[in-house]
């Protein structure tokens, strides 16, 4: 599918998958050197799945896993899904996906805790973890991702730093601190990492980012590590033709600024004048007496 068509299709699907992450997914998924299956945990209405599906190659399997309209495995997870995804059904996901692609991915309709029954260990080149935000679930999703990834495979964790998703943050940074997850880069929404040396991927990522005028990036220090931070650049506002009102407002602003400047200057002049007058009024009597004295000295005594 052409890039503009895919962008238009993505815009029609509700979800939380922003342009910087769309570009990063495209980059990671286009890696010619990597082959293997692709997995998404938490697919909702298919916004990220539709883009991922565009990069699945012949012979590769794309699997998505979601509860859809089914009950969650525990009360907290149930509260989370009822609150945030009440309109979700598997049928709506499938309709959205088939609006863009000819065939559906493999669908695991159930909790992410069963994913290892469906996806073999060491088979995936890319995993997107975007299901429950609760620590007890995300920590298991981390382990599942590590299990299914091939050597050099990449995992993207959504919501690794939002204030309403502390469980994701805890599980992800715990994996960095203790489970060997190596972060490659972050966006405001997602953390991308791998199990293995991230340096070569990071170098290639930086080379690519240098060619992207739409993406801003920098590199932060994270202890011994370096972490690339990527964001969408703000588009400059297109120049608007100036209305008469805009022109008059701008002129009024300029005149007001000019008036303020003149007022300040005249206030300074008045103050200087006041000071000079004061000095004259202090010196006046002294000068008067000095002149009298000089006059008396100059006048010969009778
Ligand atoms: C944030 S949404 C996914 C958004 C989607 N990736 C996108 O970019 O539009 C989270 C999804 O995870 C699903 N989910 C929540 N808890 C789950 C669990 N324990 N197992 C499987 N799916 C779960 C929800 O039903 C919801 O569809």
From TrEMBL:
SUPFAM superfamilies: S-adenosyl-L-methionine-dependent methyltransferases. This is O-methyltransferase YrrM. The lineage of its organism: Bacteria, Bacillati, Actinomycetota, Actinomycetes, Streptosporangiales.
């Amino acid at each position: 599918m052409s890039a503009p068509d895919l962008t238009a299709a993505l815009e029609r699907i509700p979800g939380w998958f922003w342009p910087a992450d769309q570009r990063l997914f495209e980059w990671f998924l286009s890696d010619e050197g990597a082959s293997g299956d692709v997995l998404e945990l938490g697919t909702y209405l298919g916004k990220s799945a539709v883009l991922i599906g565009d990069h699945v190659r012949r012979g590769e399997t794309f699997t998505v896993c979601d509860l859809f309209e089914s009950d969650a495995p525990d009360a907290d997870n149930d509260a989370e899904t009822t609150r945030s995804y009440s309109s979700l059904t598997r049928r709506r996901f499938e309709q959205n996906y088939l609006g863009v692609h000819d065939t559906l991915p493999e669908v695991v309709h159930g909790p992410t805790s069963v994913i290892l029954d469906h996806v073999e260990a060491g088979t995936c080149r890319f995993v997107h973890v975007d299901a429950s935000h609760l620590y007890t679930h995300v920590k298991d999703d981390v382990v599942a991702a590590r299990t299914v990834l091939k050597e050099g495979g990449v995992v993207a964790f959504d919501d690794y730093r939002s204030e309403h998703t502390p469980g994701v943050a805890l599980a992800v940074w715990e994996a960095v601190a203790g489970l060997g997850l190596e972060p490659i880069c972050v966006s405001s929404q997602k953390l991308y990492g791998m199990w293995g040396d991230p340096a070569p991927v990071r170098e290639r990522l930086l080379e690519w980012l240098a060619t992207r005028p739409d993406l801003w990036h920098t590199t932060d220090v994270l202890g011994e590590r370096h972490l690339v931070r990527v964001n969408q650049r703000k588009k400059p506002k297109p120049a608007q033709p100036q209305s008469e009102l805009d022109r008059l407002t701008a002129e009024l602003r300029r005149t007001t600024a000019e008036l303020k400047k003149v007022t300040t200057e005249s206030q300074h002049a008045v103050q200087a004048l006041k000071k000079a007058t004061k000095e004259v009024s202090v010196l006046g009597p002294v000068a008067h007496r000095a002149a009298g004295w000089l006059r008396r000295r100059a006048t010969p005594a009778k």
